[in-house]
Amino acid sequence: MRTQGVVLKTEAGDITVNLGPPWFPRQQDFMVKQGDTLEVTGSKVTRDDQTWLLATLVKNGEQTLKVRDENSKPLWRRHEPGGAGPEAWARGVWALAAEATEPSGQ
Questions:
Q1: Which DSSP category does 20 fall into?
Q2: What is the pLDDT of residues 76-90, one digit of tens each?
Q3: Residue 50, SS3 per DSSP
Q4: Could you give the CA distance from residue 43 to residue 81 in angstroms, rounded to a whole number?
Q5: Following CA atoms 66, 71, 8, 31 in sequence, which dihedral angle do they give, to the nearest 10 degrees?
Q6: What is the pLDDT of residues 22-64, one digit of tens each?
Q7: Angstrom distance (rounded) from CA 22 to CA 63
Q8: Would you call 62 helix, strand, or coil by DSSP?
Q9: Which of 26, 22, 23, 17 is nearest to 3 (CA)?
Q10: How far is C-alpha 4 from the chain's CA centre?
Q11: How do the domains of the chain map onto residue ranges?
Q12: Count of other CB atoms within 10 angstroms of residue 94
């Protein structure tokens, strides 16, 4: 599955934030542009030697995008036929506030 992500520049270094499939943020009318300051809560994971932040909640000014439920299950799965979603990959919760760079399709 193709996912939508943004790269956050933080004091600790850059990290890619997974926002789910590209249609999910658009369906929620959630927009991010280069230079926006985001607050992100999620789970940090490493997969295929790449570190990601699987977003649970993303705030961009007055906009809020809820990506995962309280059990870390993807909310977009509720919109897909037959999918309850995979189990959460990680339980460590991180909170970041950082500046977004160009969105990337991962």
A1: S
A2: 876 554 444 333 333
A3: strand
A4: 25
A5: -20
A6: 888 988 899 888 888 999 999 888 888 888 898 999 999 999 9
A7: 17
A8: coil
A9: 22
A10: 8
A11: 4-105
A12: 16
- Predicted confidence (pLDDT) at residue 11 exceeds the cutoff of 60: yes
Residues constituting the chain: 106
Q: Are 40 and 93 in contact (CB under 8 A)?
A: no
Distance from C-alpha of 14 to C-alpha of 26, rounded to nearest angstrom = 24
Query: Which alpha helices (DSSP H) does 41-81 contain, by range?
Result: none
Tokens of 17: 């934030």
pLDDT above 80 (res 97): no
DSSP tag of 83: -
The β-bridge relationship of strands 63-66 and 50-60 is: antiparallel
